Amino acid sequence: MSAQLLLVDDEPGLREAVKDYLQESGFSVQVASNAREGWDWMQQNTPDLVISDIMMPQVDGYQFLKQLREDPRFQALPVIFLTAKGMTGDRIQGYQAGVDAYLPKPFDPDELVAIVENLLVRRSAKPQAKGEEGETPDIAELASQIAQIKALLTQRNAIAQSPTPFKIDLTPREQSVLNLVAEGLMNKEIARRLETSVRNVEKYVSRLFSKTGTNSRTELVRFALEHGLAK
Fold this sequence. Notes:
This is DNA-binding response regulator. The chain has 231 residues and is of the alpha/beta class. Helix content is 50%, strand content 12%. The chain has two domains: 4-125, Rossmann fold, CATH 3.40.50; 172-227, Arc Repressor Mutant, subunit A (Orthogonal Bundle), CATH 1.10.10. The relative contact order is 0.10.
C-alpha cells in the first residue's frame, strides 16, 4: 500500500497541484483546506506524514503542529511545513515547534517528494525498543496506537457495523486477546489478565493482524468494531 499523506493548505490552486504531483509520485493524498478540517479528518484516520502550510486563517501551521505534538497519537508523526515565509527566524520557530522539514515557496516539487520519501524511510527504519521478553514495538508508537484505540472506543456506538468481507475463524484465545486489545490494553496488561507471557500475546496479536488483513493495533480495533468482532 502507498503511504497516506495529509496535505493542509488554504490555497486551492497550490493544494490541487501539489496533490496531483504527489499522487503521480505514488502517494495516497488526503487534502484539507484548513487546519481544523485536517484535524477533524485525523480523528478517524492516521496519515503517515503531514504537509502543512503555515500562513492559514483561524489556526495557523504553528498552532496546528502544537496540537499534533500534544496528542500522543501524533507525537512521532513526520510534519513538513510549506510556506512563503523563508526567513531564518521563521525556520527556527518551525524547528523549535517540532517540524521535521521546512520548504519555502516556491519550491521544486521533486524536492518535496525527496523530503517526503526520506522522512518515511527514516520513520520505518526506527529501531525497536527491546523488552524483557523479546522485541516489542517502539514505545512512542505503541502509546500512540493505544491513544488512537481509546479515541475509537469513545465513538464505538456511532460506528456502523457490517459483515466481514471474508470469513474469519478465531480461536477462543485469539478472541480473548482481540477483546482486550479492543479495550485499549497493552501486551503486558493482556498477558497479566490471561496469565500468559508477553511473547505469547505478541504471537496472538500477529495472528489477528494476519487473519484480519490489518497492520496495526489501531487498524485491528477499527476493523473489529466495524464488523462486530470485539465482544
